[in-house]
Design a protein that fits this description.
The protein is α+β, with helices and mostly antiparallel strands. It has twelve helices and twelve strands. Helix content is 45%, strand content 19%.
């Protein structure tokens, strides 16, 4: 095989590939030997059919298969030999081909540009840690304590008031008749919450232990017995107990009930919990800074074919008029995104960053936890949409790359207060909102795919007519 590089125009190259007829004939002979054993022709024993007979009978089909195989193997080898990483799909133009002939073709390819990633080792960014004031931790613990139910029984002559817990048995009737579900035992109601029937709680204010009270209430729209909906029911209630809420004592026992070792440990956990609430958002700001710095790295030329593909993605769903109006803006945005993708991927390859199946599954599980009750829908979505799974893989890959860049870079570490963190995040949110509002007519990209990944998936195809062979192609505090 002879390979020559022709027509060098920036990133565009033509690779002329020549394979002599002797090599092609050896491929053909090998294929005839392969099929000889499986061909049954009248008058010949299996495996004894002469090559000339096979050639007359199956010559065109055999040549088509051999040509496809040779084109695939040699085009890949040509790119590897000339150390060319294609940006997008190479085009293959057959010049000479046929049985007992030399094979000659031209592979037209746009090469990925050379990318400099050395500067990523010293990239600068802000890294925030939030200093949580002790009073903030105490305030959060008090809020938790306030929401913990803690009721204590009062003396028999104490009248129930709003906020008290009343336990009762009841028997209900509609028009003097019992109905299904008309009895309740040891039903507990916190007066004022109105969680049983509308207006029921108010009628129990003032009752004492052992009182009997008739309460009237309208049965709701969602009542199981449809013929009783919106009818007034009488509830004969027997009051079993009245309990009043008592302030929860914040001590070691309280801390242990929440899963901590003691009160000191609880404060540490709550402080970390508050910090974690800001950590992800602040970390994202750091990564955004890194991406902005990456945008400043110079690349001499961005492949035009990748820019065109990206512009198509950005203008999806737009009218032709809108697309034309936004074309220049889209081209600039496409170049930045492609450049960033090329740099990140080059860094990922140089540092041998891989995404494992376990990491993908962990990310899917994270999404399942974020959508309780819709787990099956999420799983079905990923199983039926391989492109969505590929997009998820791309996100995990990018995250791993950015994390390594952070490790290697120069962090400007800043310890800030909770109030400062809130202000920084609010300002960042406002900036993003204003930026998005200014481009509200642009369609947001729904699918991320790295240019290098895309290029690797492409196979060269023939530019010739169809007649020529084409290449196939109770909530505890978390300690985590």
């Amino acid at each position: 095989m002879k390979i020559t590089v022709e027509n060098k125009k920036g990133l565009n190259k033509d690779l002329k590939v020549f394979i002599d007829k002797e090599t092609m004939n050896s491929y053909m002979d090998k294929k005839y030997e392969e099929i000889k054993g499986s061909v049954n022709l009248k008058g010949f024993r299996p495996g004894k059919v002469p090559k000339e007979i096979l050639k007359r009978q199956f010559g065109k089909a055999v040549f088509g298969e051999v040509l496809d195989k040779v084109l695939k193997e040699t085009s890949t080898k040509a790119l590897e030999e000339k150390k060319i990483k294609p940006a997008g799909q190479p085009k293959l133009d057959l010049k000479t081909y046929g049985e007992d002939k030399d094979l000659e073709y031209v592979l037209s390819v746009t090469e990925l540009p050379k990318v400099e990633i050395k500067s990523l080792d010293n990239i600068k960014f802000d890294e925030y840690t939030v200093k949580i004031d002790e009073s903030e931790t105490d305030k959060r613990i008090k809020e938790i304590a306030k929401n913990q139910p803690n009721f204590k029984e009062v003396s028999p002559d104490t009248k129930a008031k709003k906020g008290d817990l009343v336990s009762l048995d009841y028997k209900a009737t509609v028009d003097g008749k019992d109905f299904k579900g008309s009895e309740g035992k040891n039903t507990q109601l916190t007066l004022g919450k109105d969680l049983f029937l509308k207006g029921f709680d108010d009628q129990l204010i003032g009752v004492k232990k052992d009182d009997e009270k008739i309460v009237e209430a309208t049965l709701p729209e969602n009542f199981p017995e449809k013929e009783l909906v919106n009818k007034k029911a009488k509830f004969n209630c027997k009051i079993l107990s009245v309990k009043q809420s008592e302030e929860v004592k914040i001590d070691n026992v309280f801390a242990k009930n929440l899963g901590a070792k003691d009160l000191k440990d609880l404060k540490t956990l709550i402080s970390k919990q508050i910090n974690d609430e800001y950590k992800n958002s602040l970390d994202q700001l750091s990564k955004n800074q890194i991406l902005k710095e990456i945008e400043k790295i110079k690349i001499d030329e961005v492949p035009e074919n990748l820019v065109e593909e990206e512009v198509k993605v950005l203008s999806q769903g737009m009218s032709e008029e809108e697309s034309k109006k936004n074309k220049k803006n889209f081209e600039e945005k496409a170049k930045i995104r492609i450049k960033t993708g090329l740099i990140l991927n080059e860094f990922g390859e140089k540092n041998q960053i891989k995404v494992t199946e376990q990491e993908i599954q962990a990310e899917v599980q994270k999404q399942l936890r974020m959508m309780p009750g819709q787990e099956k829908m999420v799983m079905d979505f990923y199983q039926k949409n391989p492109s969505a799974l590929a997009s998820l893989r791309g996100s995990v890959y990018e995250e791993k790359i950015l994390n390594l860049i952070k490790e290697k870079g120069k962090a400007n570490k800043k310890e800030i207060s909770k109030e400062e963190a809130e202000k920084i995040l609010k300002d960042a949110h406002k900036h993003n909102h204003d930026h998005e509002h200014g481009h509200s007519k642009e369609k947001k990209e729904t699918k991320k795919k790295s240019p290098i990944t895309s290029a690797k998936e492409k196979k060269p195809t023939s530019k010739k007519a169809k007649s020529k062979p084409a290449v196939k192609k109770t909530k505890k505090v978390s300690k985590k």
